[in-house]
Amino acid sequence: MPPAGTFVATMMHVLSNGLPDDVLVVEDDPIIALDFEDTIRGLGVRTVRTAGNVMRALQFIEERAPDFALLDIGLVSENSLAVAERLETLGIPFAFVTGYGADANVATAFAGTPRLPKPFTTDAIEAALKHAAVGRSVR
């Protein structure tokens, strides 16, 4: 369980708009990454950081852990499962984003992880963000 001050701060923000403060997007297509960033900021999230590869995503996480992450499963020459493993270890909620639907290759350990389709809808992203914020606030 996080320190009481962290818990209270998280609860205050969840109560104010129901969204996490800091979202990490791992997406290798710059146009899609910008679309995610614009959509998420438009919903009221304060900080959106984008990483185009696993190494950069892990650097962002080490610098400052996000409240939530969206991970494109299939990056250009790698997959984002190492990022998912790190987020899982830290207890940070995340969802996979894929254009391959149910056919996306996801490790058995992450079979129950939420998935958003590409192309995405604003409503789907908002629902994922609110679900993650509520789940995190009660940890």
Polypeptide structure, described:
The protein has 139 residues and is α/β, with parallel strands linked by helices. It has one domain (4-137): Rossmann fold, CATH 3.40.50.2300. The protein has 5 helices and 5 strands; from the N terminus they run αβαβαβαββα. A 5-stranded parallel sheet has the order 2-1-3-4-5, with helices on both faces. Helix 3 (54-63) runs parallel beside helix 4. The longest helix has 16 residues, at 122-137. It is globular, with a radius of gyration of 14 Å. It starts with a helix and ends with a helix.
Topology overview:
Elements (H helix, E strand, L loop, with lengths): L3 H14 L4 E5 L3 H13 L4 E5 L2 H10 L4 E5 L8 H10 L3 E5 L16 E3 L4 H16 L2
Parallel strand pairs: 1-2, 1-3, 3-4, 4-5
Helix pairs in contact: 1-5, 3-4
Radius of gyration: 14 Å
- Into how many domains do the coordinates divide? 1
How much helical structure, as a percent, in the residues? 40-55%
DSSP E strands, number = 5
Q: What order do the helices and strands follow?
A: HEHEHEHEEH
Tell me, what is the CATH class? Alpha Beta
Structural class: alpha/beta
CATH topology: Rossmann fold
**Could you name the ranges where pLDDT drops below 50 across 5 or more consecutive residues?**
1-15
Given the C-alpha coordinates, what overall shape results?
A: globular
Mean pLDDT: 82
Biggest sheet layout: 5 strands, parallel
Total helical segments:
5
